[in-house]
Amino acid sequence: MVRRPGEDTDAPARQPGRGTVFRKSQGRYWLRTPGGAVACSLSNKLRKDLVRPTADPSSLRAHVVGVREIRVVDPVAVGDEVEFLPGGGGAGMITGVLPRRSRISRRAPGSRPLEQVLVANVDQFVPIFAAAQPPPRWNLLDRYLATAEAAGIEALVCVTKLDLAEESSLQPEADMYRRLGYRVLLTSVVTGRGLEGLAEALRGRVSVLAGKSGVGKTSLLNALEPGLGLRVNEVSAATGKGKHTTTHLEMFPLEDGGFVVDTPGVREFGLWEVPASEVASLFREMRPYLGGCRFGAGCAHLREPGCAVRDAVAAGEITSRRYESYRRMRE
Ligand SMILES: Nc1nc2c(ncn2[C@@H]2O[C@H](COP(=O)(O)OP(=O)(O)OP(=O)(O)O)[C@@H](O)[C@H]2O)c(=O)[nH]1
Ligand SMILES: [Mg+2]
Ligand SMILES: [Zn+2]
User: How far is 89 from 28, CA to CA, in rounded Å?
Assistant: First the structure.
């Protein structure tokens, strides 16, 4: 058999392949593939097929928006499983995106209602708060939990720096979230508390971490796997806190299987696509009351008379703190 020079590398390289996007930056998409990392561009067809002004890819009225928008709304997200054509030399072109099993989005910056998918194929959303320094912001946690509900993704609440606070000061809130059915982990990198549980919860799954600067994310990741937090920090530091932060998300592999994605500085995920009338259904404890208001589905549960939700708040069946979070999210 006669072999021409280059055949070994070129011929198999033309076969389409599949990979998972683990990083994107400046119009490049890095895929994890069985043959190693591949840096890809997008096919023109893919841009035109998928860049639409609505959230619903099946919408009949969807039409292609200008090329100008592509920087804002990207058809390919970190976490996407894609088909690509290898071009040789560790480069390639993405030609298709496989259906997503879940996604975390936000409204893209700008005046048009465009969805920006931040991470696709997420298994769990992990809000991280400090017990102290900075003090926990429960209203922000409620917003994160609503995001997970809207996305149909499990949530795992992680409160860290437990060594800095009296546990009794956190227990009522932790118990309240547990009663709602959320898993709450209490951790500290100083005492090592809860770290095994966290490692266990992250193992083998794709987890999106969310939390403000200084809550202890990097420390937790380092405690789980030395060096991992450092790598996450490099990405965050490189991108700063500006409006482009979210285009530089990266999915990091865990040694024992699974992946974590850090989402620094993202405030408005998830909820942009939820109609105001459906926000109440993202609060688990409100669901049983939603049919019972005098104005039915028309009730905003804000000022209306005969509101079953507000009656439940008055009766102590819904905490006023959670109700306050709901009210803020409706405004
Ligand atoms: N006492 C105590 N301090 C902690 C703990 N975890 C983190 N810290 C401290 O909190 C500060 C912030 O921790 P980081 O891990 O850098 O926080 P971060 O969430 O990664 O912050 P950004 O990278 O800015 O988003 C550091 O000074 C840590 O040493 C903890 O469990 N206990
Ligand atoms: Mg950090
Ligand atoms: Zn009502």
Answer: 15
User: Per residue in 231-263, pLDDT tens?
Assistant: 777 776 665 554 444 457 889 999 999 999 988
Q: List the one residue out of 187, 179, 176, 181 whose CA is nearest residue 209.
A: 187
**Number of domains observed in the structure of the chain:** 3
Report which residue type is found at 38: V
Q: How far apart are the CA of 250 and the centre of ligand 1, in A? A: 20
Pocket test for ligand 1, best of 195, 209, 218, 219 (most atoms within 8 A of CB): 219
Q: Which residue has the tokens 């804000």?
A: 302
Spatial CB neighbours of 59, under 8 Å, sequence gap ≥ 6: 52
Dist. CA 39–CA 41, nearest whole Å: 7
Domain that holds residue 221: 124-262
Alpha helix ranges (H) inside 134-271: 138-151, 167-179, 195-202, 217-224, 228-239
Least confident of 60-64, 124-128, 287-291, 299-303: 60-64
- 288 with 214, same domain? no
H-helix segments, 14-154: 44-50, 138-151
Residue nearest to atom 8 of ligand 1 (CA): 216
CA nearest neighbour of 76 among 100, 59, 58: 100
Whether 45 contacts 63, CB under 8 Å: no
